[in-house]
Amino acid sequence: MEHLFINTKATNVELTDERMSLIRKRLASITRVLRQAGGSELNVVIRGSSARDGSVMYFVSLKAIGEHENFMAVAAKPHLGLALSAAAHMLRQAMSRGESVTERYASHLTPSQFEAFTLTL
Predict the structure, then answer these.
(1) 63 closest CA partner among 2, 1, 21, 117
(2) Which of 28, 32, 55, 81 is the most buried (most CB within 10 A)?
(3) CA dihedral defined by 26, 29, 33, 35, rounded to 10 degrees?
(4) Which one is predicted more confidently, 3 or 66?
(5) Which residue has the higher pLDDT, 24 or 100?
(6) By the 8 A CB rule, do 45 and 84 touch?
(7) Do the Cβ atoms of 4 and 35 come closer than 8 Å?
């Protein structure tokens, strides 16, 4: 079985050991599915955004890079664990339906729009 690379990037969120453990736990099912499908990489991008009232909203983008297709999902929730779970659920659905990101979105977006959509740093 090939090794699956998990690349994690964060903006306005400190990636502590506890948060990295949460990320691995919430994405365990996706990594298993991706390995079985011949995938080689999972990109995780997390952004934290603070509101005036002190609350934080977490934006999570997941991009699974498979052997022949790429899949992605995004989610925004007030708790990191919830955002990771929601994005993982959407990614599993996209993979099961075979809705690759290039087929679904890239055809009508400019490169800058596509980059903004995927939350790439």
Answers:
(1) 117
(2) 81
(3) 70
(4) 66
(5) 24
(6) no
(7) yes
**Contact call for residues 92 and 33 (beta carbons, < 8 A):** yes
110 Cβ neighbours under 8 A, 6+ residues apart: none
Instruction: List pLDDT tens digits, range 51-63.
Output: 888 888 999 999 9
The class of domain 5-117 in CATH terms is alpha beta
Count of beta carbons in the 10 Å neighbourhood of residue 79: 12
pTM: 0.77
pLDDT tens-digit series, residues 99-113: 765 544 445 555 665
Q: What is the DSSP letter of 44?
A: E
Q: Where are the domains of the chain?
A: 5-117
Cα 51 to Cα 38: distance, rounded to the nearest angstrom? 40
CA pair distance 79, 64, nearest whole angstrom: 22
Distance of CA 82 to the CA centre of its chain: 13
Can you tell me whether residue 67 is helix, strand or coil?
A: coil
